[in-house]
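re: ur question from yesterday

yeah so i grabbed the chain u mentioned. its 208 aa long if i counted rite. heres the sequnce exactly as i have it in my notes:
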Amino acid sequence: MHGLYLKAAIVSSILVLVSCNATESSNTSVKPDAAASASAPQEPVSGKTAFWEMYKSAHTWAADLVPLSLESKAVPGIKADGGKAAMWNAMFGSPSKHEARSFSYCVTGHPPDIYKGVTVGNSIPWAGPVKTALPFDTSDFSVDSDAAYATALAQANSWVSKNPGKEVSLTLGNASRFPAPVWYVLWGDNKKSGYAVYVNAKSGAVVK
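ran it thru and got these structure tokens back, copy pasting raw so excuse formatting
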């Protein structure tokens, strides 16, 4: 699928879902996890690796947490490779608290804004699921980011060969239009031209 609609179906919906006044994670308070910081490797990691580190931290915030999204982020000095990234951001919601909270996991620190290990953002109001942004079960998160990338690359190979050097981002999310959570793999900038592929995070198949 060509990436002309891009992250609007997942990322924008999540941001609207959690709060019409929600701030970006750079504006939230940060609380680095010292234990995770000490053990984190300084090389890109898969989405699942980062997700479970953040999930453990998020569970101490809300035992009834539901995952809402997972997104790769770039970090200066560490190149993303094969569906792995140096930094990942996740959003979790709590039905009982009516709140959502952002978490990030990074393999290295990059002062003044990026901390090594798990960083916890402020909680923000969350009104609950909507059709364009649904929580997903961790049992449906079977396909890791590197496997999703490989599947997407096979689909996008012709375009990528003609447009070398484009940065790649991966976003995991869910919506009623999909049968399961999907990985959204994007080459290029969604505000211009690019190429995007949706990969079912449960089956690993390309979603048309």
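noticed a couple things. The longest helix spans residues 145-162. also The chain has two domains: 23-125, 138-207.
anyway ttyl
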